[in-house]
Amino acid sequence: MSVKAERATGKRDARRTGSVPTSWTPKCFQRSGACGVITAAPRCSHRAHAAPVPKASSQFLVTATVSRTLAERIEDLLPQTQCTKCGYPACRPYAEAIAAGEANYNQCPPGGAEGIARLAALLGKPVIPLDTTHGEERARPLAVIDENVCIGCTLCMQACPVDAIAGAAKQMHTVIAELCTGCDLCVPPCPVDCIAMVPVTGERTGWDAWSQQEADAARARHDRRLTRLERERAAAEARANARQASRTAQAEPKAQEKPEAPAAHEDPEAKKRAIIQAALERARKKKEEMASLGAGPKNTAQVSAAVQAQIDAAEERRRRLGLTDDENAPHSGNGDKSAR
Questions:
Q1: pLDDT digits (tens, 9 = 90+) for 195-250
Q2: Cβ atoms of residues 298 and 253 within 8 Å
Q3: 99: CATH
Q4: Which domain holds residue 130?
Q5: Number of folded domains in the chain?
Q6: Contact in structure between 194 and 156 (CB atoms under 8 Å)
């Protein structure tokens, strides 16, 4: 037997018995790098001392599996048009509702009969007809914008769940045909009715008009859109909080300058006392100015008893309110009484 035939026979025997024949000399192996990766080394000249590396047996192989929830597996079977015809805001909430037993598995018109059959097989339930209250199975439509009528309001862009419409405010919009899922959500918000849904798949309906690759791409775009909207919402809230903090910081110094003003507005009695005090201050200043000019009051010499009683009552009210002037309050009245 030749050397080559002997080696081939030895390899076959080794695969059957798990032993290694002495006539077969494998390549030497060496460890390289700090991580200890085993790599094949150049053929070693020490054939008698080279140790063979046995092949890993299948009983030692470990397969890593990722556990997926029932809602995730249901979502994988949905067409991902995000059309909301099922009664839920997107395909993921609908899948979660089916998994929780809150929704039936025949409420997805874009999936059609084949979509129901897929869900029934996963759930171990019978195939049932489509619930037509949520819509009819149909050929997949494509949104088409009449660019001559479009006013650039951006409402259709905000409604599109997969960002399939390009445009800007007060500029012409257009639909990216390769990205449109035919969800119809852009039609209702258009104020000029310039969007038409045109069937583009002929007689093919449901999953026959839609591929798994297209569904996966639509799902990825929808997820990216949700992430973008959440980021924009957080940024808007941060700007609003910053503006509110700025207004509060500007209002604090003014509040410190007039600490009594809020109390007067809150307490009606305090406000009333403040008004009376201000009026009395004006009257006192006016009286001082007239006295300095030699034009004092001329009607205090002959005061009747009734008028004096009114003056005394007014002074008593001033004392109760804490507005009396200790130097001037009752002296003029007493002087007048003694004079009489």
A1: 999 999 999 999 999 999 999 999 999 999 999 999 999 999 999 999 998 888 88
A2: no
A3: 1.10.15.40
A4: 70-134
A5: 3
A6: no
